[in-house]
Amino acid sequence: MQGRQNNCDSRVTLRYQRLMYPEGCGYRSETGGLMECLRQLGVEKILDPLDDRIASKGKLPPHKRPFVDSAPIPLLEKSIQETVKFPDEDESMGQVVIAWLDTPVSVLQKEFVEIEEPLCTDIDFSINEQTRTAILATFENVPTEELEDLVTGLFDVFKRIVNEGIDMERMKNVIHRDRLKTLNEIEVNPHNVFSGLCIVDHVYGKETGEDLERGVKDLGYYEQIANFSEKQYHIDNPHIALLGCPSAEFSKKLIDDELKRVEKQRETLGPEKLKDLEKQLEKAKESNNVPIPPQIIVPSIESITFINVITGRNKSEGKYKNIVQGYLDSDNSTDIPYFIQFDHIPSAFVNISIYITTEPIPVHLRPYLEIYLETFYSLPLNRPNGEHLTFEQMVNELNTDTISYEDNWGIKGFEGMICFSLKVEASKYATGIRWLRDLLWNTEFTAERLKICASKLLNDIPQTKREGYEMSLNVLQTIHYDRLRSNKYVLGVLNQEKVLPETIKLLEENPSKAIEMFTKLKEILISPENFRIHVSGDIVKLPNPKSAWAENFKNITDTKPLSPIPSPQNGYIIKLPAIENTFATHAAKGPTTFDSPDLAPLLVLCEVLHTMEGLFWRAIRGQGLAYGVFLKVNVESEGAKSGVIYGLVSKEATESFVSQVLNNLESGFNKKLISRVQAVKFEDLHAMLVKYITKLFMPETSNVVVISAPGKVKDVQEGFNTHGFKLEVKSLDKVIK
């Protein structure tokens, strides 16, 4: 709990629970326990009165289901607004959470996010499925001075929508898209969809099962709400508004209080009691280290049902001879001058992706890649037929035609690659291709849109810097990567914190120069020799899988050979006032090729390191030395193999392109890797432990970054120094100077 009790999300959520639910209601509870309570809780306190309490009850009455048979939750009688402080020296950005019981909400991105001076960077709506449903709207990264104004502005928007009415046509499109997303989830993650339904029904549903039967028929509910009138979308209910406000003063108070608490505990216990407690701890360790029974059943890989991915390409050159390649070859089309790989899997949807190497981007333009990615799906559009779409029109039409779209950089270890993906219904395959064409070639940079997106990215940074683990990785990138050409460094939070304000200033003072730079950046990226296209879906059911590209994509006549795919590539202690615990990240060299013979045993060893109740778990987490270290050895490594195999099999449908095109491995590599995993012996694990893992903890072979609360920095530094690590203490703003 020390890792999260006093962060923004936890403090705001706990206060919401205490305000929303009455005394005695389980929904008020902090399920992880509060530190001040956990410190007072011992085994004796739990067990001593247990026998008496059980015996005193006599014959038990009929079972009552928690929550379902409890007193009903009362509705809020009035609206409440409070400020909740959380620790951070950076007091620029906070959070707003607004909660209702049983009331719908509206879309607010346009009013609060997509404006020149964003009032927040994202709005998230969530539903707490309980005996009385609660709906929460969370506004992330709100400028501190705007926290109260945002709440007022939200309800002003609600009133205006009530007066002006809802765009019911757009509402129907949103409902249709959400229905498709549900179908997609059933196809991609059926275990999550149905396990969630079953769990909620088990807790709250009727024991006869009729609620579960209704729950799995949720597609029918989309038809019902599609016929709602606009009056059914607004209810004027009381609400709770919580303003998460960063406070340097509160951060200092937490540090001082913790130091005083520890010192008082030492004085209260005294030397003799501390020695006695140490003996009790050692005795508990012995009890905790009883060996786990070695009998573990590991199924054979022969029992695994693989997703059968069949690959073809627009230019096979004899590499593929299968039903998919034959179908592609029979699609009479003109020569398509760019690389396309088609992966056939059973699906009602088609995923269209374009992978682009950033290697040719010059040093002076690379820092702007982050803003380019942020604006990719949110710019005005000029179609080849002369039609102009504003940013809002473009987003609405894109949402109507797609199920999802996303962008990523750093694909499966290739930090020099970026990827744009669209998922569409199979019937809209050609439409998806046209969208990819328009997004790549026909969008229009404007100073307004660039500034809005840059401001959103800048406002996101304070929240990111409150995450200890994330910042340890970011600082490590400053050690490992080229500061001029590496995306890991250039697009990292610490560098972008400098780049974004400079870009916003340039957009204000010289917008034409800024637009010229972004235009040049785009021209380099969308040069055909820099991209590779991937299509996955039921390829043999698409009417024109190959010729659709000739008809709907960019007509390119002057082609060059494909650019090569870029290969993937000290110590600090950093003070971070927003956290109360410590995060340490160690890095050392690993295998340098994707087909390395070390890969299978190292995968198994890494799975061993993550195993619950293993040696590391017991020796480190079990003794309270760290929260997240895991290891399991000896015959238990058979269970680790099962974990690795499950991970590889579950990803097989999406790994074909990455394995064959980026990693330059043969088709079916994952299946062969699974066989190698099954064949790993204990001595292989020992060899990997010596060759790689031990290097993580040697000063001469590893880089180390530690992120810690200010009050613990001195102790952490002294501890590392005793083991030969010379760690320099810095604040985040000094790391890249």
TrEMBL record:
InterPro entries with a match to the protein in the record: Metalloenz_LuxS/M16
Database matches in Gene3D superfamilies: Metalloenzyme, LuxS/M16 peptidase-like
Domain of life: Eukaryota
GO MF annotation list: metal ion binding
SUPFAM superfamilies on file: LuxS/MPP-like metallohydrolase
Protein name per UniProt: 27764_t:CDS:1
UniProt source species: Dentiscutata erythropus
